[in-house]
Amino acid sequence: MDEPVVVPVAIAGVSHHTANVTALEAFRFSGESEFLEAARGQFPGVLLLQTCNRVEVLVEGTADELRTFLAGQGREGFFVHEGTGALRHLFSLASGIDSMIVGEDQIIGQLKKALSDAQEAGTASTLLELCINKAIHVGIEVRRRTSINRGSVSVGSAAVQLAEAEIGSLEGKHILVVGSGEMGLLVAQALAAKRLTAMYVANRTYGRAVILADKIGGKAVRMSELYHYITLSDVVISCTSAPHPVIRRQELAHAMKDRCWPVEGHPRPLILVDIAQPRDVEEGSETVDGIHLFTIDNLRSVNEQTMSTRKAEAERAHAFVEEELLLFLRHMNRKQADEALAALHTWAESVRIRERDRAMSRLGNADSRTLEILDDLTRVLSRKLLTDATFSIRSSAEEGDLAGAEALLCALTKGERIRKEYVPRNE
């Protein structure tokens, strides 16, 4: 689709497509409110989206302005999309097409939260609100019209699938979930049907651990007891929003000593899946004897296995995104013509009133009925004379040719010549 670019938005960042977990962590902004405050003076609108497998910045502005700003923030190696490309990326993102786990639903809530954070920080411009809300609408419609999100499709459920693939079966196992936020809930829900012997839930706020544990029939544990329950578990899935590691290498190594087989002297293997961003498990923990550590990078294989069943649905989703993108661009382009059309009709109304008043003065003592007919006549003539011009200006704007729309306006209201490139041609 070659729809001309007239929507002044740009989006840049890194995602699971090109960045591993280390690169994502390096690009991440630890202080979101501070970032938005710094961007406030550079852009009319800015929004920051940070999830476990992407960090993206959406601005009302140009790609060059966004590149310069991010470089000034010490970021490099990021992609940039502008105008139509930025909107296509945003709509695809909301639809689950661009997700690591294709079709996952969590991105809708994440976009809503990013918009809410920007609104609270005062950086959500009217244009960005319009773009995000449209993207959310497209994402919801894609899921309603297709089966792209059929089955268990989330990073949380993928983490459970990964653990199950490594251990053979989770039936009868002891599982510890660290974190009781949205991702923790998704993990716990995916585990609920696995016929576990025990499921433990640990969280920095014990009350929230209790709430989640009650929902899924598990046992809430305090963070002070974390390593004791790591010792008891076969699988640990960690997904907190902590800005620093919550599972430390040294303490983990000590806990693993309590898992040693009496004869062999080696600890029972522990599957440790870290799907947090930034990471929950301290770097180097994978070297601890008995630890089998997996991160977001390892979830790609789960998506590849499940993608084949949703390939046709993803293609249908792509087609719908393109349709909605075209409609949205035409709508936005048409809005760009509103000011020009308002100016045209204001000019025409001033001419109409001036010439009507001249005619009325020449009629002298005409009766009110005659004056009413004269006013109606000039009004109808003005409207009919502007019909074709209004259509041409609006059509030019819908096609993204704002310069052509402006040229037509100036030709009508100022008598300026229309340059050769704006002369309509018969196709």
How is this structure best described in words?
By secondary structure, this protein is of the alpha/beta class. It contains 15 helices and ten strands. A six-stranded parallel sheet has the order 7-6-5-8-9-10, with helices on both faces. Helix 8 links the parallel strand 5 (174-178) and strand 6. Helix 12 packs antiparallel against helix 14 (368-398) and helix 13 packs parallel to helix 15 (402-414).
What is the element layout, followed by pairings?
Layout lengths: L8 E7 L5 H7 L4 H9 L5 E6 L2 E7 L2 H10 L6 E4 L1 H12 L10 H16 L4 H20 L9 H13 L6 E5 L3 H10 L6 E6 L2 H11 L2 E4 L3 H7 L2 E4 L10 H9 L12 E5 L16 E4 L5 H37 L1 H26 L4 H31 L3 H13 L13
Parallel strand pairs: 5-6, 5-8, 6-7, 8-9, 9-10
Antiparallel strand pairs: 1-3, 1-4, 2-3
Q: In total, how many beta strands?
A: 10
| Major beta sheet summary | 6 strands, parallel
CATH topology of the largest domain: Beta Polymerase, domain 2
- Coarse shape: elongated
Q: Name the helix and strand elements from N-terminus to C-terminus, one letter apiece.
A: EHHEEHEHHHHEHEHEHEHEEHHHH
CATH superfamily of the largest domain: Glutamyl-tRNA reductase, N-terminal domain
Query: Roughly how many Å apart are the termini?
Result: 19 Å
- Beta-strand residue fraction: 5-15%
Structural class: alpha/beta
Q: Radius of gyration in whole Å, from Cα?
A: 30 Å
Compute the number of structural domains.
3
Biggest sheet: strand arrangement? 7-6-5-8-9-10
The overall average pLDDT, rounded, is: 88
Helix-residue proportion: 40-55%
The appropriate CATH architecture of the largest domain is 2-Layer Sandwich
Number of helices: 15
Weakly predicted, low-confidence segments: none
What is the CATH first-level class name of the largest domain? Answer: Alpha Beta
